Amino acid sequence: MPREKSWKQLILELIEAIFKSAGGRSTKRTWHQHVVPYEGDWAVRREGNKRITSKHRKQSTAIRKAKSLARKYKADVIIHRQDGTIRDRISFDD
Predict the structure, then answer these.
(1) Alpha carbon distances (Å) from 43 to 8, 18, 66
(2) Which DSSP state fits 88?
(3) Which of 5, 12, 72, 86 makes a 20 to 30 Å CA pair with 38?
(4) What Cα–Cα distance (Å) separates residue 62 from each residue in 8, 15, 29, 92?
(5) How far is CA 40 from the centre of its chain?
């Protein structure tokens, strides 16, 4: 008859699995800011994030916000067209 695992063993295995999955990221996260179309407006989204940073009615306003964030973190601004293709890239990496 197989021996059942104790709660302590199950919790330890769960914690170990969480740490292993968290350590699997091989690339460093960046602060690059993307200006993307979003629900009929424009949004600023940090590279790698699913959630948006801010939403704007005009692309120019979104670009201004993305530039201020990119300047602060020495990152790039990637500006997309309405169809999602990349229009321009501005680097603030000194």
Answers:
(1) 46, 32, 9
(2) E
(3) 72
(4) 50, 40, 22, 16
(5) 21
- Give the long-range contacts of residues 51-55, CB within 8 A, separation 24 or more: none
pLDDT tens across the length of the chain (94 residues): 456 778 888 788 888 887 777 665 556 778 999 999 999 999 999 999 999 999 999 999 999 999 999 999 999 999 999 999 999 999 998 6
**0.85 exceeded by pTM:** no
Helices (H), the chain: 7-22, 59-73
Residue 85's CB is within 10 A of a number of other CB atoms, namely: 7
Distance of CA 26 to the CA centre of its chain: 15
